Automatic annotation (TrEMBL), chain A:
PROSITE patterns: ABC_TM1 (PS50928). This is Spermidine/putrescine transport system permease protein. Keywords: Cell membrane, Membrane, Transmembrane, Transmembrane helix, Transport. Pfam families: BPD_transp_1. One of its GO terms (cellular component) is plasma membrane.
Automatic annotation (TrEMBL), chain B:
The lineage of its organism: Bacteria, Pseudomonadati, Pseudomonadota, Gammaproteobacteria, Pseudomonadales. It is found in: Periplasm. InterPro entries: SBP, Sperm_putr-bd. Transmembrane segments: none annotated. Residues 1-23 form the signal peptide. This is Spermidine/putrescine transport system substrate-binding protein.
Amino acid sequence: MSTPRQLAARRQLLRRLGLITPSMLVLAVFLVAPLAIMLLVSFLQPGDYGGVKWGQYSAEAYINFLYERDLDDSLVFNTDYLGIFQRSLGLAVMTTLGCLLIGFPTALYLALQSEKKRNLLLFLVTVPFWTNLLVRVYAWILLLRNGGLIDSGLGLIGLGDGALGILYSDAAVMIGLLYTFLPFMVLPIYTSLEKLDWRLVEAAFDLGANRFQALKRIILPLALPGMLAGTTLVFIPALGNYIIPELLGGGKALMIGNLVQLQFGSAHNWPLGSALAFALFSLVLLALLFNGLRQRRSTEVRI
Amino acid sequence: MIRRTPLALSVLLALGLTGTAQAAGTLNFANWSDYYPPELLKKFEADTGIKATLDAYDSNETLLAKLKAGGGNYDVIVPSDSFIQIMVQEDLLQKFDKSQLPNLKNLAPTFQSLDFDPGHDYTVPYLWGTTGYSYDAKAVPGGVVEESWKAFFEPPAELKGKVVALNSADDLYPPAARYLGIDVCTENPQDAKKIQELLLKQKDMLAMYNSDGTIERMAAGEVAMHQQWNGAFHRAKEQRDSLVYVYPKEGISAFIDNFAIPKGASNVKEAHVFINWMMQPENIAAASNFAKYNNAIAGAEQFMDKALFEDPAINTPKDKLDRLRPFQLCSPKALKLRSTVWTKLKK
């Protein structure tokens, strides 16, 4: 015999399941299924001119990632793809650090404003999202190009000579990445600073801390969850970004995103493309795992 | 491989034109963006009573993917020469009923038989061009460059950082092979290695690899030398008269975009009417004038803009016709070498 309490608990469970099902279905259809297809494709033989040979399995794509076949068909260690991953990783780390350096003071400034001004400033931070990213990147092309707005502006004050030479370089890619991902850093840090109990800072001052010590010992630790969230939000998309290096970069060095695109395009190697995408995916998972562990540790400390 | 300016406005215009339904049937035409004059479609509708719509795509890969997925429902498409054999192999194109294409007789002699479709069973040429390189006579030492790939692949020290190559293995690898006297479809890794060395050496001299904005860069004088399509060169020269287009003696890639009817087209008869109509000199000339590329129809020259037809970059001089190299579909093995070289070049 079930007691009324057990019945109620069961009903509660069913209701929860019913509420969870739609989101689980969305995840299954739009996340798990595509990943499963990608995994399958990465273990197939490439078709002659794109596509795959269904039913012909091979781990060649994963072997190719680290090794290449020499003339006598022996496997030789090959760092080409690792080098490209390393470069993308470096760029993503730089972007994240840059966003932190600019984003934290910005968020702190926002959090210290009066509520009315704060809302206006927050609104301004989100304005770029109203326009498609592609359009904004093209706008940067117009800004950065030789004879563009920045170049001619510098010329007006006697600094430029009509050959700025920033566009189509790594500097342009860096500017584009910083610009694109900055709001993703500012907003989470702002959220954690907004909730900050400023009496704690006042207490620190009362106890003799100077501004720097208050920042370091009180504000930074309390803003850490926001910084970690922002780091994840910036690092992951920056790592696989395709469009910004493609449009602003000089094309002399591949990034992961461009390398994957190449495999599905003129290199006609879909399995390698899928395998590379999986390697990228595992890097992302590692980053998430690291972040999750950090967060768990910081909550443990607080308990 | 995107060589058209990315304006899909033509689609909107074409949609605006198709308000009047007529009994004579309909035609769904798909072409590269900004590669077909909307007014010409209006003329086609007036001439034949067929109601036509124009859809745009941005690359051969996109078109192939659409056809493979069975989507699109196009009656006439314009794939490049490089994709014809693949599409035929994949059974995506249908054979023409040549009795409905009497204007095939208008094809200029050079185009009567093409390697990728010798009997014009599946395709007829739309527009064609070449992938050579251009330079600014005012910016190169001596003011003139030998008609060879040498200046592009091994530029003089003065041009360091002032040369741009197209950002695609399929555009850069074949001329490098030709310059070294190697078969563009070589399956020999030693040959590929020589090409790789040449490209790596050239990379130090290059400003960048970029296939977009070639017109603006040359017209503004930002760089001195640029691997370029001849139609893009023509537009750049309109803005800067000191530009020169080179037909290298080692050979220059020619590309042809072609009309074809995909399998599963619902208006096959209208598709034939359209292709036949496009092979009339005055109609194809209007397309040339719009897109700034040459066509393959004899007699079209009298309807072409004088400046366009008299540009040797567009209308290849007779003594240089033998330098043109049609597209060659390489074996998967050769293409694999090509993409390995490309990855090593950019690792």
